[in-house]
Amino acid sequence: MLKFSVKKTDFLNPLAKIQGIVDKKSTMAITNNVLIYSNETYLFIEATDLEVSYRNKIPCSIIEKGSISVNARKLYEIVKESPFEDIYFEEDQKIRLIIRSAKEAEYKIGGLAPDDFPKFREIDSQNFITIDSSIFKKMIEKTIISASFDNTKYSLASIYLEEEVKEEGTQIRMVSSDAHRLSLVERIIPEKGLRLDSPIIIPRKGAQEIRKLIEGYEKLIFGVDGKFCFVICGDDNLVIRLVDGKFPDYHSIIPKEKKRWFNFDRLEVFSSLKRISIFSSDTTFRGVKLTIKKNLMKIESLYKEIGEAMEIINIDYSGEPFKIAINGKYLMDALSVMESDKVEFIVNSVNSPCILTGKKDIGFLAAIMPMNFIKEEDYEE
Fold it and tell me: Range of 57's domain?
């Protein structure tokens, strides 16, 4: 029967990391749980939703070896609210986990048989790279904004990853698209690369968990094993089932020409869009009309049900005047992950994607399709 004592700080951190993994909506009660087991020295915890799996080993005082599976959320909340640093755990005959942090307090969580818990996939770590966590984290942050929330569209609710060998190293490229916008970022690393037989597609949830997991680490180990990718940071292990599908040909989406463009202050436009979005009742669809003239851009709310908003921004533009409508939220999402003070905005026509780039955002571009429910002649001056 499992019996151990552990420091609150040692136990709480890995328990917090699994909260986004456990499948709260699943009809399988076991995937709402965390598996806890031990050897002579360490305590191990595992969590999975059958697509994303996590494992960590925790230093503790093992009194008696054993294993049990209990509700992940309830265990986390009890440990989190404990006022004591030393917490004692003991499994009883009724498959319950007894938790004591003082003589005056005792909690019991009903458990499930550990044998029913899905087995953690052991990975072959032959094919991997070691990379700076900050680089990988930024690449995910700059692409996940465009991944679809529609999980039935597997290839679009994901991040596409490919690599290309260069003289100066290996170029890692991540791309995402929800069919209305696209984000692409590429970085060259000095490492040998993964030597992938073909690009891989990481599901949105898996990418989110990678981003959270690597926070606070300087380096991460990232690799691919068949239909799975894995991340190792210290004692944190994450295994993700890759999407089995085909990603759209993103090359055909990105314009090859640059006919019309202007530059603006990123934070100024972001703040303006944030104020104007107050007048939109839809949190995902915030249409705005942009009227571009010499050195000026007028931003207007597209729908007038709640009220009207308009702001004029100074820009760097000397071409012919034009108008275009765009989803303001998509534009805000792109600006929010960029670092450049000045952003270049390419608008070739009302039928081609608008492109955003910046000098400090090396290897990054965002593409947003204009809104096309207004005739082209209504845009042009």
Answer: 3-116
